[in-house]
């Protein structure tokens, strides 16, 4: 073939790419969630695994179906449905009926994600939408926390639930070490702070999460609950208890840091983290629900477009002032 | 080791031709000399069809302040003056087609040794202007304009740009290895146009250790200082290099002389040496031929107006896998739609590649990872610019620093959603210019 007859492709620069892709990012996040899944299986038994598989598979299936209905390119294997599935299972009790898990997947993938336009367009974190959806629809099942290492899925209240309903004395004999390791009742992924931190470390090392959001989130919750503990230690639990119990670690490192539903710029991220922490404290101490992480992140999700706009306006203003 | 502060990326270097000496490509029988090889207005032809010309003779005159002369790149007869010849910049331009007589006969008074040290500043500038020298790193800005900033701008730092941060390209690298004396003389000429106490730096990326060594040896005891640079793209962009070497930062709309700096790249300085010391107009240049889909990879010195087809023939042809020809580097170069394109004053490299994998991957929605913000050397917000450009709201982009973007492509390089960020930014620039008209 001579050069005259050869077909050339015209495209625009750059002609090299880093090789980073949505798939690569999502599968790395999935990998970072494995320690938490393993901890759930260790504490709550094999049923945890079945809950996880049900949730992951149903998420992929829902995404596939909606891709077909919307006549879009298949995105069900880009890893984001898998991450949603894994996170969803970590947000429910190990004993939740399977059909409810599937219902949760539907809420996450179809309602919270695809109806808004799919990955990148969703305003709210799909997993948290599903969690709140399930919590409001099935309050009994969603708070039937399995007792760790129990043979026949004995359920009990979570430490935060105990605190809310029975007061400070009910949690007096729960050690911080147990809370840190996760040997307590709770949703599958919320119990072991250690497992969450291992995964978060991997994401941080890969550069996939920036620490501004989780650190301000956790610090604000700590300071807020600490303030009330200082005022009246006989009425309020210690800030360390609040730090280690419930969904704070999972929420701060894996939910609030979700790229799509968190602010792009530094100031917005700090305000976002602060808002999450503040609302979590308010709900935990004074709200009707024992746990407020999911609600507070969802409320702050709604503010993200405003925070971004504010930051961008400041940038434009700074440029004009030059 | 120094490097610029904000952003930057590390694309694979692929400097395959770093150890291959510069070869001279014989002038082909027919050369097609484009009349728009520079930034600004195309030159106006001053020759007619069938006219005989000698090598180095002026064939087109600069038109206006920002423009440059064009010279016959070989001796022979003007075959035609074509109105629409595709240029490597992706546009059509007027071109003078010369049929070579094979004599390579220089016009009178050219290619001779000159006692240039006694020349005045104005005489030197005149020679640079007469030689039609433009920035050969890619921008093509007329050198005599750049070297003659308005008198109220005090230039205290002159930087020789030997960064060559684009992957594959080894043009400046080879020139520094093979012509260090000439380059340093050229640098001396350029620096002599300014105050006596001007500081002169030679910035070279650390991946060219041999060039750093040669330049350090030759500049011992002189006022020139070699600055090894930590390799990072886009180190060779003027603003970044100024930041690395002097720590100064250019605000939006500022030119290097606004912060007292002037940057010229190695190939340009070499051309300035030849123009002032040898009376040689800019009619040939060195460039890299590389990429996986050409049979032999080389550094070539060729006559301007040589077509890519001639170069492919000289380099043993292309493979069957080829699907893109890029003029320039892989980060900021331009894809060609035909091999039938002549090289110009700004052609620093020609790459023959197979990019089918990239071609098939599709653009997805922004997942707001913030990587484009992280790597932007200008500290911009490429994501929002892309969103707005896609929504046809290009007029909103200048508020976020659209004109500060030098289109280095770092944002697009890192984007996991495979968005054509820099393309949308270029698109917005075009849309805004159209609106103004």
Task: Explain the overall architecture.
- The complex is a heterodimer of chains A (322) and B (437).
- Chain A has 322 residues and is mainly α.
- Chain A has 14 helices and two strands.
- In chain A, helix 2 runs antiparallel to helix 3 (80-90), helix 2 runs parallel beside helix 4 and helix 4 crosses helix 5 (126-137).
- The longest helix of chain A has 29 residues, at 293-321.
- Chain A is globular.
- Chain A starts with 21 loop residues before the first helix and ends with a helix.
- With 437 residues, chain B is of the alpha/beta class.
- Chain B folds into three domains: 25-110 and 281-356, Ubiquitin-like (UB roll), CATH 3.10.20; 116-278, Rossmann fold, CATH 3.40.50.11540; 371-436, no CATH class.
- Chain B has helices at 121-130, 143-146, 171-178, 180-191, 209-218, 238-246, 266-278, 308-314, 356-360, 371-375, 382-390, 410-414, 421-436; strands at 22-24, 30-34, 44-45, 52-53, 58-61, 70-71, 76-86, 92-100, 157-162, 199-205, 224-229, 261-265, 284-290, 298-303, 324-327, 334-336, 349-353.
- In chain B, strand 15 and strand 16 form a beta hairpin.
- The mean pLDDT of chain B is 94.
- Chains A and B meet through helix 1 and helix 14 of A and helix 8, strand 15, strand 16, helix 9 and helix 12 of B.
């Amino acid at each position: 073939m001579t050069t005259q007859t050869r077909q050339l492709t015209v495209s625009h620069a750059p002609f090299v790419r880093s090789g980073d892709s949505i798939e690569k990012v999502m599968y790395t996040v999935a990998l970072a969630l494995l320690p938490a899944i393993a901890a759930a299986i260790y504490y709550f038994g094999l049923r945890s695994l079945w809950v996880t598989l049900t949730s992951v598979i149903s998420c992929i299936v829902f995404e596939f179906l909606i891709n077909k209905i919307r006549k879009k390119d298949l995105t069900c294997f880009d890893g984001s449905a898998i991450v949603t599935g894994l996170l969803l299972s970590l947000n429910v009790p190990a004993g939740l009926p399977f059909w409810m898990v599937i219902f949760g997947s539907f809420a996450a993938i179809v309602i919270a994600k695809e109806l808004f336009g799919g990955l990148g367009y969703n305003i709210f974190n799909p997993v948290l939408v599903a969690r709140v959806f399930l919590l409001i629809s099935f309050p009994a099942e969603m708070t039937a926390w399995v007792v760790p290492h129990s043979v026949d899925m004995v359920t009990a209240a979570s430490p935060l639930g105990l605190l809310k309903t029975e007061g400070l004395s009910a949690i007096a004999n729960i050690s911080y070490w147990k809370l840190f390791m996760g040997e307590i009742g709770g949703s599958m992924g919320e119990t072991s702070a250690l497992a969450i931190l291992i995964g978060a470390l991997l994401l941080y090392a890969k550069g996939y999460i920036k620490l501004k959001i989780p650190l301000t989130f956790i610090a604000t919750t700590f300071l807020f609950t600490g303030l009330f503990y200082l005022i009246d230690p006989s009425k309020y639990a210690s800030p360390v208890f609040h730090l280690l119990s419930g969904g704070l670690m999972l929420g701060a490192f894996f939910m609030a840091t979700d790229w799509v539903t968190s602010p792009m710029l530094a100031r917005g991220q700090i305000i976002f983290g602060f808002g999450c922490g503040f609302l979590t404290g308010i709900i935990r101490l004074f709200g009707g629900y024992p746990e407020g992480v999911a609600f507070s992140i969802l409320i702050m999700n709604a503010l993200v477009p405003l925070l971004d706009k504010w930051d961008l306006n400041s940038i434009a203003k700074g440029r004009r002032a030059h | 080791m120094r490097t610029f502060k904000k952003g930057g990326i590390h694309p694979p270097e692929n400097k395959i031709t770093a150890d291959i000496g510069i070869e001279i490509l014989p002038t082909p029988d027919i050369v097609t000399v484009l009349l728009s090889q520079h930034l600004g207005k195309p030159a106006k032809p001053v020759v007619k069809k069938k006219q005989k010309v000698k090598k180095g003779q002026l064939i087109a005159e600069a038109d206006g302040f920002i423009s440059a002369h064009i010279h016959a790149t070989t001796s022979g007869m003007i075959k035609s003056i074509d109105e629409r010849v595709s240029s490597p910049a992706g546009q059509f331009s007027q071109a003078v087609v010369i049929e070579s007589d094979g004599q390579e006969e220089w016009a009178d008074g050219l290619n001779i040794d000159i006692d240039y040290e006694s020349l005045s500043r104005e005489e030197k500038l005149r020679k640079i202007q007469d030689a039609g020298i433009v920035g050969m790193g890619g921008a093509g800005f007329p050198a005599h304009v750049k070297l003659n900033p308005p008198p109220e701008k005090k230039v205290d730092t002159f930087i020789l740009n030997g960064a060559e941060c684009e992957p594959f390209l080894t043009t400046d690298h080879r020139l520094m290895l093979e012509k260090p004396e000439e380059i340093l003389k050229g640098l001396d000429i350029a620096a002599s146009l300014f105050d006596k106490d001007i500081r002169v730096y030679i910035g070279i990326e650390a991946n060219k250790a041999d060039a750093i060594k040669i330049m350090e040896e030759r500049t011992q005891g002189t006022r020139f200082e070699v600055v090894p640079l930590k390799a990072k793209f886009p180190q060779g962009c003027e603003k970044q290099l100024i930041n690395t070497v002097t720590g100064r930062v250019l605000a939006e709309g500022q030119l290097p002389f606004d912060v007292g700096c002037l940057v010229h790249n190695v190939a340009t300085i070499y051309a300035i040496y030849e123009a002032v010391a040898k009376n040689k107009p800019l009619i040939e240049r060195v460039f890299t031929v590389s990429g996986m889909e050409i049979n032999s990879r080389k550094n070539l010195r060729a006559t301007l107006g040589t077509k890519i087809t001639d170069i492919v023939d000289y380099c043993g042809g292309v493979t069957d896998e080829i699907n893109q020809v890029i003029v320039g580097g892989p980060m900021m170069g331009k894809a060609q739609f035909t091999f039938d394109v002549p090289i110009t004053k700004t052609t620093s490299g020609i790459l023959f590649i197979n990019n089918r994998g990239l071609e098939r991957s599709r653009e997805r929605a922004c997942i707001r990872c913030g990587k484009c913000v992280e790597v932007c050397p200008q500290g911009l917000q490429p994501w929002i610019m892309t969103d707005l450009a896609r929504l046809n709201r290009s007029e909103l982009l200048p508020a976020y620093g659209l004109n500060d973007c030098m289109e280095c492509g770092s944002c697009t390089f890192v984007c996991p959603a495979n968005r054509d960020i820099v393309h949308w930014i270029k698109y917005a620039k075009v849309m805004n210019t159209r609106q103004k008209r």
